[in-house]
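Build the 3D complex.
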Amino acid sequence: MISLSDNREEMLEIIGESFKRADIIIVTGGLGPTKDDITKDILGEFFHTGWRWDEQALQMIKDYYEVRKREPKEINLNQAYLPDECETLYNEWGSAPGMMFRKEGKLLVSLPGVPFEMSNMFEKFVLPEILKSFNPAQILKHHFLTINIPESILSEKLSDIEDYMPPFLKLAYLPNLNQVRLRLSCFTEGEPEAVKVFEHNIQKIRTFLGNAIVTEEDISFEEFLYNLMNKHKLTLSLAESCTGGFVSQKFTAIPGISTVYMGGLIAYSYDAKSDILGVNMEDIKHYGAVSKEVVIQMANGAKENFKSDFAVAISGIAGPDGGTPEKPVGTVWIAVSGPDGTISEVHHLPGSRIRVIEQTFNMALSMLRDEILKFITPLN
Amino acid sequence: MISLSDNREEMLEIIGESFKRADIIIVTGGLGPTKDDITKDILGEFFHTGWRWDEQALQMIKDYYEVRKREPKEINLNQAYLPDECETLYNEWGSAPGMMFRKEGKLLVSLPGVPFEMSNMFEKFVLPEILKSFNPAQILKHHFLTINIPESILSEKLSDIEDYMPPFLKLAYLPNLNQVRLRLSCFTEGEPEAVKVFEHNIQKIRTFLGNAIVTEEDISFEEFLYNLMNKHKLTLSLAESCTGGFVSQKFTAIPGISTVYMGGLIAYSYDAKSDILGVNMEDIKHYGAVSKEVVIQMANGAKENFKSDFAVAISGIAGPDGGTPEKPVGTVWIAVSGPDGTISEVHHLPGSRIRVIEQTFNMALSMLRDEILKFITPLN
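Done.
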């Protein structure tokens, strides 16, 4: 992947080099209406092509503006003026059409840089075209999301398995704080022997890691918890202090979460903790807001107020300021309240504000997972 | 910028090409302890160097594990085995040291790929070295963060100014939903004439854009609002439904926000809206949770419960499910309650769940800005 600036000479050089190296070239960005967007002109130049007005693109641009109750400007309409040789890729969500060029059995696709426009058009037009025209070899993949085992220990544990892996298998370690995602890839054209070896290695890794595996689906930790709680009809609420809504927005990014997630309180002030969650103000003053006593009451208060089965509460000092010698920056209390009671843990987390928040998120999810599993296991 | 996979031949080729093209090459990633991390070996091979044990790196790795109350494994200690020719860059936050190589007046730096380790070491070691050894030309930059004017209209408005700009000035448009950040860059070695032209153009753009400019600092919209509220000793609370904590976590990512932000409620369930925010349950049932009546009560309830000067409430349908013919996906009500009353607006936002959430965030901030400016203007 190469990123470069909107510079004519560099772009022509890199497109030329890419054509020598690759069969499929995907170019993103530089299709906007403004003067700094030059990709369309460069591609016209590269392919030595004439130009045309694309009537359908013109209509889509007009429709785009009509829906938004605005008049398209001349520079917007100009976005429908396209190189003669390209196939037009229509854009449902923006005014810039994409372009598909073919040359000597190779494919160059130009898409807008706006992420949701790009990914929509990629899935709709580009991926089907690649599958149809290039019939690519399949790469089989299997994921293991692990928790609370550092990458180096995982690697040491798995080295015996890795040493015996054939070259068409590849194990990648994708660490993210205290989560490590393992991705086992199998480069094959579907030979049964290769698939068998792949599956055998999946089984070996599974047996070896045991409980450390959160899920073998290619989903996030929070999606795993949502699926688990949804399946068992359990509900969740949150009381966040130092994470400030980070945990909540991770959960609410999951479509359909409203069957599980009842709501959350971001209790930044003492008053919010006391008035809304019912934390004893004397305890806040005596033990401090970042304390076992307060975080347990926050979890219990959230569970009660939001009428949920489980509640997670977080109170800590994310920094960069606010630390004291007894409670330095990175001190975080987490409590999980469930049908069978409330547990709490303190963590001392290194790093910047956002890193403390991200680690707290992972720790909280890990505690919540343990409590849910404890609760549902006898029911299974 | 080139990204490539952990493949020996490709890495050697790209490092060689980069050395021909550039004076400074920064390589990130591939320094972990596991078998798929090969950058250190490749660099040793590229520079034809011997190897050494770096005693100080060894000590840092041991300290790193001691703080975390773990034993370093052999593969961790091996991270202190470094190419002879490199200068070691010590890593405060991880176990992988960085490396700095010099060759024919050029510089190659290898840093860990973990973002916070990389950026810390870049600022501490690499940037000072570049400034010292290469004495780079300064690029002057000026930012304008604009709101509610589409990129194409901005561009048309500014085309007269752009047409008269000399080639050493460059105006970039960085759009993000209904925000556009304009960046005027001046490529100069400090000639007074160039600086004068740069400042003259800043003034022309400023006059032209007027009220559409949120801030000319290189900060986010939410940081601008925090600075504004903090300066005027105003406080904020939130009541979020469909944005699920997104707005809250954007604000709480700002260090020091607790002087302004009192807290927020994520009211996913009817009960939370009614019990905690005091929204009339009859109104929820009669008008629906996504309605003017409910969102106004949510804002008022948040302002009262969190004892803040301003409150923003959001209730909408982010999708992909939950829409109805009367209230399709993308329907979002936003209310801002301030010392002088409560206003509300409905928006119909296109796109995916996360896009609806992001657009809502921008709309809410824009409304909040207007209300704060109305309130403080007579005080100024």
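The radius of gyration of chain B is 27 Å.
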